[in-house]
Design goal:
There is one protein chain. The protein starts with a helix and ends in a 6-residue tail after the last helix. The chain has 497 residues and is an alpha/beta fold. Strands 1-2-4-3-5-6-7-8 form an eight-stranded mixed sheet, with helices on both faces. A seven-stranded mixed sheet has the order 9-11-10-12-13-14-15, sandwiched between helices. The chain has 17 helices and 15 strands. α10 packs antiparallel against α16 and α13 runs parallel beside α17. It folds into two domains: 255 residues, 3-Layer(aba) Sandwich (Rossmann fold); 173 residues, Rossmann fold, CATH 3.40.50.
Length: 497
């Protein structure tokens, strides 16, 4: 059996496995173990080997270390919810290269050494587990071909292992990383703090700033991604991923994205629809694993997109306005008005965005492009609605604001009931008083957006005020037209047309 083979191979000088009975070989083996001198105990792990592992005994493979969440263990990645073996098989059928996946058991350690030195889990991982895997299996034993991926507590593990050991790992992918801002840590319940954080980072039974120990700061991403640390950490490819329905974790993850942007750290960042669930993490793997493959192959750019833009031919009138079939059938019936507010965009690009937005439905609507370099938004709305007999109240108006049009849109916010905001600027005095209950806000940007800090502010205000919102952050595309088209393609399902 594979477990016996692994145990027998741990002392070999060559990392080649001894012959294995092909009839007994299984790709996913659970309950394997390694003796740890540092922890003075057996460390359990599972492993997923490539399908062709037996057919070419000279072939070596990259390794991805998969870190589980709090309360889970080495078996959790392949339980009935995450089912990573099937996910990998599905992705391999689409071209994913074979890799070795290792699933260590980290208990509740957050993959760190305890502050008091009594349980040096990270030291075990770096100096015992990684060398053991390299000796036991046919790995490509260098940092370029090692990655860490984790969800929740394991997301913290994926981050901290690479941050503290960039000589071992070239890629770190935290999914829904479990960590807090200083303010969140200081307001955590006493039991919650002691049980989950204080026992690891120190400050047990402390409150307020007393919890922010020096050991905590040595591990907290908000302190680690300091400008002065870039020379050591920029050798790692960072990829943060978090759902917009997270309770508090997205606040910390989004703030970290802003900090990394401010300090010039190269990284990928995604916000998609979802919460702290296995379904979210499974979906994320559809991009994450091909991304790891691409980076390991030496590629600097990552061009993956969740949604490919699909502009189609449409007919617009002399004002550039698109009217739905239902509206054209009865123009006297007041329909829904959707405004596209922009500055300094090519008219053909705007038309392509409208073509993605429109769809054939039973509704009567018009999509009306407003060039704010030529006319104020209020004046345009008044003129268009008189001409088209459409809209008439904020409940029957929506607006897509692009870039620098954001300030104008919020200065005329009483006109609209739904806001679609793509990488926008905000008024200098923007605060929660400018968000109204009953209105809908869609917040969209790429992970290299110009107004990333303003979008972070918009999201947090929506979150804190209980506003109805959706938040998305997609992969950056250097082609501005494609980037905007992708933005509209992603937001399309939330349009009221």
């Amino acid at each position: 059996m594979l477990a016996l083979v692994s145990a027998c191979a741990c002392g070999r000088k060559t990392p080649d496995l001894p012959p294995v009975d092909a009839d007994k070989f299984i790709r996913y083996a659970s309950g394997l173990s390694m003796e740890s001198k540092l922890l003075d105990k057996v460390v359990n792990f599972d492993i997923l080997l490539p399908a062709d592992y037996l057919s070419d005994p000279q072939k070596r493979y990259p390794v991805v270390y998969m870190c589980h969440g709090l309360g889970d263990d080495n078996t959790s990645w392949n339980d009935k919810w995450l089912r990573i073996e099937q996910k990998v098989i599905d992705l391999e059928s689409q071209g994913l290269e074979p890799m070795i996946y290792v699933f260590p058991n980290a208990s509740r350690t957050y993959y760190c050494n305890k502050y008091n030195g009594k349980y040096p889990y990270m030291d075990m991982f770096a100096t015992e587990l990684v060398p053991f895997i390299d000796k036991t299996y046919r790995t490509i034993a260098d940092r370029q071909h090692r990655a860490t991926v984790g969800y929740s507590m394991g997301g913290f593990g994926a981050y901290i292992l690479a941050a503290k050991h960039p000589e071992l790992f070239s890629i770190s992918v935290p999914l829904s990383m479990s960590f807090r801002t200083d303010e969140q840590y200081m307001s955590e319940s006493q039991d919650g703090w002691n049980y989950q954080w204080g026992s690891i980072f120190g400050g047990e039974n402390e409150s307020g700033e007393g919890r922010l120990t020096e050991y905590y700061k040595q591990h907290c991403p908000f302190y680690v991604f300091d400008k002065d640390n870039r020379s050591g950490l920029d050798s790692v490819h960072w990829f943060l991923h978090c759902g917009d329905d997270e309770e508090q974790l997205l606040i910390a993850n989004d703030d970290l994205h802003v900090l990394m942007m401010d300090n010039g750290y190269r990284h990928e960042y995604r916000v998609a629809d979802g919460a702290h669930t296995s379904g979210y993490w499974r979906k994320a793997l559809e991009e994450v694993l091909p991304y790891i493959q691409s980076v390991m192959a030496g590629n600097d750019e990552w061009n993956y997109s969740w949604a490919s833009p699909r502009p189609v031919d449409i007919e617009v009138d002399d004002n550039g306005v698109f009217c739905s079939e239902k509206y054209l059938e009865n123009a006297e019936e007041t329909g829904f008005a959707f405004y596209v507010a922009y500055k300094s965009l090519d008219s053909e690009l705007v038309r392509s965005l409208i073509s993605i937005m429109q769809r054939t439905t039973y509704k009567s609507f018009a999509i009306l492009p407003c060039n704010l370099d030529e006319e104020t938004l209020a004046s345009f709305v008044e003129r268009m609605e008189a001409q088209y007999h459409i809209g008439g109240s904020s409940e029957k108006r929506a607006v897509l604001a692009i870039g620098d049009a954001g300030v104008d849109v919020f200065n005329a916010r009483e006109l609209f009931g739904r806001f679609y905001l793509e990488d926008i600027s905000l008024p200098d005095d923007f605060d929660e008083s400018m968000l109204e209950q009953g209105k809908f806000y869609y917040i969209g940007q790429s992970d290299e957006s110009a107004h990333y800090s303003e979008m972070n502010k918009m999201y947090k205000l929506c979150k804190n005020t209980g506003a109805h919102y959706e938040y998305r952050c997609r992969n950056h595309n250097a082609d501005h037209a494609v980037s905007l088209q992708s933005a509209v393609e992603i937001m399309k399902e939330y349009l009221p047309l």
